[in-house]
Amino acid sequence: MSSVQVTAPDGATAIVQRLGAQVTSWIPAGGGEQLFLASHARLGEMAVKGGVPVLFPQFADLGPLPMHGFARDLPWTPAGEMTEGGLRRASYVLNQPEGWGTRWPHPFTLELTVAVGGPQLAVSLTVNNTGGRTWYFTGGLHTYLGVADIAAARLDGLQGRIYRDKTRGNAESTEAAHALEVTQETDRVYLGAAGPLVLREPGREVLITTAGFPDAVVWNPWAGSAQRFPDFDADDYRRMLCVEAVVIGSPPILEPGQHWTGTQTLTWSDI
Ligand code: TA6
């Protein structure tokens, strides 16, 4: 099966693809779809623009690996589901593939847990060093939040944070906006911005909290850059804002047998 629907006792649902363990839909109890999915996304065939792609062991182009590493392009193995405290939890694992040593010489196991119920979606990534040497990684959860119209969306919680702006050669600035409006291509790594952040638009708020992820990325390609994406319709950029939970500035260093966990929790409210 290429995807699984995870359903909480109260009817909240998430859909998780086997490819990349990518969450591609989240509908909280009593609400509508909260995540963006590109209009022409080819689910099950490739990592798609939408939902929650898992980035490991490299964020973007910060190293020699393909953009955002390889975890999003590999099939993960379902590792069980359970109901606990009103949440339905589904887990997926990814072991280092056979013969992978030439691409990434460090044995690892990843575990992704998706917990859905009530107004919440929580996605947790655990990285285990199963080898005999110490290594480090960057990465995170490249969450695409859906919005009705980017012109009316605001992101609160970043004021005063230092960010690297990829659209200006990674120049560093301090965020001045109390409520960030996205009016052009925006591609920023906010360092030490663990949140909480709040995405607001008319009639809706999404509270974004994290544990373990120290940094945040805010990305919208805007009309120009979005033209390069075969799975985007011309107006798709207006329906999305990526608010990513990431670890970039201080990569976690894992000694043999050590693990690291990061969680992003999204809480929807209808205001
Ligand atoms: O996280 C932001 C970013 O690194 C952008 O620079 C942008 O290219 C985006 O991710 C999407 O990357 P992708 O490899 O999915 O096209």
Annotation keywords:
1 helix; 2% helix; nine-stranded antiparallel β-sheet; binds 6-O-phosphono-beta-D-tagatofuranose; 271 residues; eight-stranded antiparallel β-sheet
How would you describe this protein?
The chain is mainly beta. The protein has a single domain (3-270), classed as Beta-galactosidase, Chain A, domain 5 (Distorted Sandwich). The protein is built from 1 helix and 22 strands. A 9-stranded antiparallel sheet has the order 5-6-7-8-22-18-17-12-15, with no helix packed on it. Strands 4, 10, 11, 13, 14, 16, 19 and 20 form an 8-stranded antiparallel sheet that branches. β2 (13-17) and β3 form a beta hairpin. It is globular, with a radius of gyration of 18 Å. The chain starts with a strand and ends with a strand.
Summarize the structure.
The protein has 271 residues and is an all-beta fold. The protein has one helix spanning 222-226, and strands at 3-7, 13-17, 23-27, 54-55, 77-84, 87-95, 108-117, 120-129, 135-136, 139-141, 144-146, 154-156, 162-165, 171-174, 179-180, 186-191, 197-201, 204-211, 215-220, 240-247, 253-254, 259-270. The protein has a single domain (3-270), classed as Beta-galactosidase, Chain A, domain 5, CATH 2.70.98.10.
